[in-house]
Predict the 3D structure of the following.
Amino acid sequence: MAYTATRLTSNKMKFSFDVPAETFEAATQAAYLKNRGRINVPGFRKGKAPRRLIENMYGANVFFDDAFEAIFPDIYQEAVDCEGIVPVSRPEISIDQMEAGQELKFSAEVFVRPEVTLGEYKGIKATKYMPEVSDEQINQRIEQDVRKATIQQEVTDRAVQPGDTVDMDYLGSVDGVPFDGGKDEHASLTIGSNRFIPGFEEQLVGMNIGEEKDITVTFPEQYHAENLAGKEAVFHVKLHGITQDLRPEMDDEFAADVSEFTTFAEYRDSIVKELSECRDKEADNRLEDNLIQQAVDAADMDIPDVMIDDEVNRMLRSLQNRLMYSGMTLDDFIKSSGMDASQMVEMYRPGAQQSVKRALVMEAIRKAENLEATEEDVDSEIAEYAKSIGSDPETFANNVSHDQWHVFEDQAAMRKVVNLLRDSAEVTVHEGDEPTLAVDSMVESIDAAAAIADEEPQDEQQEAAQAPETEATDASEAEAAEKPTAKKPAKPRAPQKEEPAQ
């Protein structure tokens, strides 16, 4: 079948097709045979009415849509393959001629992966920053093991102190009237965690088991439960129990309990080594990101909006999936952020554009350098991934599907691109911290807030009395479009408990 291809812009193609009349007639006859059993014609049993009679009753074009739908996918895909392009949207179809006994003529316009003009990507100058492992970092890492070894002990002979965890009932009211979400029984709260309204936890200090007390607090002026914002509330509290943390001494016995070492000095040295290895890996990652970003900045391309839209949607789906684990919906999260959906989308667009551009440049370098992943490269990539998730590499590899294997193949090829950039770069090593960049990234804040929501699920009753939350993405290629249907021109793809506060 004849076609002509015209590049309308650097990222958009137009295909014009001429389908012979006999081919279109054969497809129309096949559509008749396929559908005749579903068409009612008076005087004929289903499936027995002649085609001409059905066309007279319902119109000469009654089978044209199905005929077109049968013809289009194969000839469109053949043209795409011949031109060597990668569509990134569904084609917009325009019918120029569709008549019985005539050639079928139509065109399809589609956005394609844009051509990339690479700049300098070899010999890039960059600095690798190697900050010192500080005593603060060492102590923070040791504190993680201390917390794991800490046990809770019930307290019966004294009053509440800062740092204790209490078991209590509470009932909150405003002007003597209880409010929704202001009640809980046997609630657990650590004094000093700042989970409740300011002033609440401090007033628990000094209470004894079995004691009841009224605690007066004021909700913040900026509060998500508008009926409580700025109002004074009284919480009647009854204390049931007190527990305290028993922290281990940081000595040889502690080291033997939490590690394979018999002395605290050896254990501490292992922590320094662990943090140094993490520092080195982070330094390598930052260097590679810097090299990739410089290669991206040096390249030129015209990215179609549909690719950015697809990436924004992917990023929002990822956010939505993380929120699901905390019992929140994306709509709820958008509302709590003070934005509407369109503002959220626009906030994500710069990051999405950068992700798409990064993926396009990496792929362009791979092609320019003819870098292909060998089977050994892919096996190594699979093994590394299996180790990272704690799986046996051989067992994991045996369960990798065909599609998954090709994903690992792409990753192995991209690793070769990164190695090329790094091996050819002029790298200066700096012993010290990287200069801090004052970049205000709301996307990072939103993602961080979502991560916090993942770690600290809330239930529905807790939400009304919580204090306002403090505001707290890897590139993926835009997906190629699916084969369109041909009925009409296709469009591009474009319950919880309440706490007094948190």
Remarks:
- The radius of gyration is 33 Å.
- The domain at 151-246 is CATH 3.10.50.40 (Chitinase A; domain 3).
- The chain is about 45% helix and 20% strand.
